[in-house]
Specification:
about 210 residues; five-stranded mixed sheet; alpha/beta
Length: about 210
């Protein structure tokens, strides 16, 4: 396992990986051949609406039991903080995640149970994505990195039980080392790369 993580850090799995976002829903950044795969209409990676639990919770899409109802960040913090409602302005998602982290560090049993259960569903969903795309690794990013101390072990256990890789080692389920800042850094880097490759014009002189 340590060797696999070292290879991921060194970029060995970078030619083929799936990055699961931990933001409002669940989307997948699909990297193949060192390039982002966008799909025919630019919609590739909308994995949050894969149906995992047909008898489960109602999703914003109108169906029931979608991946993101079980392991999306909004659902996770809603369940974790259900017994900790407060008056005043509604929390932002980032604030709710921070409150969840604080309570988890304090050993709140309701929060810990919610994170463990969400982690199990995250692992099951990651196994479905892995079976469909056969990546070199599945990487959890965004706010998942903040919640990884409580979600990752149950996620890996469920992932290992569900993933199928005949004749080979299962792809790793890892946490992004960039944490919640990964998408921001990636967006900034994409602009810099476009400038250096000439696909975006360089800014003119400031008068």
């Amino acid at each position: 396992m340590a060797e696999r993580r070292a290879r991921l850090r060194d970029g060995a799995a970078g030619t083929s990986l799936v990055y699961l976002t931990g933001t409002y829903g669940i989307s997948a950044g699909i990297i193949t051949g060192d390039r982002l795969w966008r799909g025919a209409r630019g919609l590739a990676g909308d994995v949050g609406h894969i149906m995992l639990d047909p008898g489960g919770k109602r999703c914003v899409c109108g169906r029931s039991g979608c991946f993101e109802t079980r392991a999306g960040l909004a659902g996770i913090v809603r369940t974790a903080l259900a017994g900790h409602r407060r008056r005043g302005p509604a929390r932002s998602l980032a604030d709710a995640v921070e409150e969840t982290v604080r309570l988890a560090h304090g050993g709140d049993s309701t929060v810990l149970d919610a994170l463990a259960e969400a982690g199990r569903w995250l692992g099951r969903g990651a196994a479905v994505v892995s079976a469909l795309l056969d990546p070199g690794a599945v990487v959890l990013g965004g706010h998942y990195a903040r919640l990884a101390p409580w979600m990752l072990d149950p996620a890996r256990e469920a992932y290992a039980a569900a993933v199928l890789t005949p004749g080979g080692e299962a792809p790793g389920l890892e946490v992004s080392m960039l944490g919640p800042w990964g998408p921001v850094e990636g967006a900034a880097l994409s602009v810099l790369l476009a400038l250096t490759e000439g696909s975006l014009p360089l800014p003119g002189p400031v008068s």
